[in-house]
Amino acid sequence: MAKISMAKHLAKEYLIVSPDYTLGVYKPYPAALNDCYQALVWMRDNAKDLGISEDEIVVGGDSAGGGMAVALSLYARDKGDVKIKCLIPMYPMIDDRMKTASMTGNKAPVWDERNNRKAWSIYLEGITEEKISKYAAPARETDYTNLPPTITFIGSVEPFYDETVAYVENLKKAGIKVAFKIYEGCFHAFDVMVKPLGLKPFRQYLGMFLVLQMSMAIMSGLFFFYVDFYIVKDQTFLGNSTMVGMISAALMFSMQIVALPIYLKMIEKKGKTFAYRFGAYLWIGTAFLIFFIPANVNPIILYVIAALMGLGISGPGLVPHTIYGDVVDAGQLKFNDRLDGQMSGFTNFINKIAQGLGLAFVMFLLGLAKFKEQPLIGDPIRFQEDSALLMIKII
Q1: CB of 227 closer than 8 Å to CB of 220
Q2: Distance CA 282, CA 203 (A)
Q3: Is 96:136 a contact under the CB 8 Å cutoff?
């Protein structure tokens, strides 16, 4: 029984049952666990028809599926209805408390502390801390006896490292046979994340997403420089602080919220391509207005441009999310397997790369243009060379 990335390969020699359990975004715990246990009982009851032995059932999964496999092993042991012969929870998600050293502040590719916190909040929605069951978060278990022999592995830089190591140590202390390997320098789902790259629509999606996130990072990084050293140039030179940059940024990002229903309607009537291009053209058009704005201009003009730019950004920002499901469906047609987990992880990885590349590229260009960085100690920078201001506007 598996909800596992390598199920297709195992199916060459073994019967695979992959339960389509209810995801937490639709129903929180215990819906998924109940679904999996029903599948396990069904396998036991239909073992003869399936051509399997009811006492040789192996349960496995990876990531959240790995955590589900561990939870299922605890649940099956305690109920005593079904015997699991072996457990294969790969880099399992098992500890909702998120207080380990490997989890705290983790910003590794694919899956990090922020993503994990959001996932647990969805899965445990409506459950108070004192009522969280060991079947929901298996790391809360204290009795590891009579559990099946376990095979697992973990990457050394991923957030689940410490909780997986602790889980393995507890199994060994309870006398459970464990085969465990640590892959140094590897992040979450490193073993499966490259598979979606064989799909052309996914590569195209990643290219679009990379350029978008680089652009967003560049704009976010330069926006306040542009306001401080150009729009309110004289005020900055005099050492006066203003709210122009903050107000402009607030308008820009609030317009993205306002624009959401507009673009959804546009997608419904005109299609995703039209919505993407409309937003991109509006974004580019308002950006060109920057060249014609004089220094120390009335801030209201900047507010209008910021609002229009926010409206434009929403198109390219929203459309990749709306086509993601189409890309996943294309992957299922090609690979006969839903790779949404791997695709999501790779997209998150690309997001981090894009932000770093975008800001590094910008700082390199600004350095060539003689941009002055604010020293850690000393007087604040109150003006920039014309070459630096020109570079900011061009970027």
Answers
A1: no
A2: 26
A3: yes
Contact yes or no for 68/11 (Cβ under 8 A): no
**Cα 87 to Cα 1: distance, rounded to the nearest angstrom:** 10
User: Measured between alpha carbons, how far is residue 23 from residues 31, 124, 131, 324 in Å?
Assistant: 8, 12, 20, 18
Output 55 or 141, whichever has higher pLDDT.
Answer: 141
State the average pLDDT over residues 309-330: 83
Task: Tokens for 80, please give them.
Answer: 């005593």
Cis amide linkage into residue 30, ω under 30° from 0 = yes
Contact 65, 88 (CB under 8 A): no
Confidence bin at 3 (pLDDT 50/70/90):
very low
Task: Name residues whose C-beta falls within 8 Å of residue 261's C-beta, 6 or more positions apart in sequence.
Answer: none
Task: Let me know how long the chain is.
Answer: 395
Query: Do the strands 57-62 and 84-90 form a parallel or antiparallel pair, or are they unpaired?
Result: parallel
C-alpha span between 303 and 202 (Å, rounded): 37
Chain position carrying tokens 């940024």: 249
Q: Measured between alpha carbons, how far is residue 336 from residues 83, 135, 261, 328, 331 in Å?
A: 30, 31, 34, 11, 7
Q: Considering just the CA atoms, what is the radius of gyration of the chain in Å?
A: 26
Amino acid at 190: F
What is the chain's mean pLDDT, rounded?
Answer: 88
Cα–Cα–Cα angle for 357, 103, 148, rounded to 5 degrees: 125
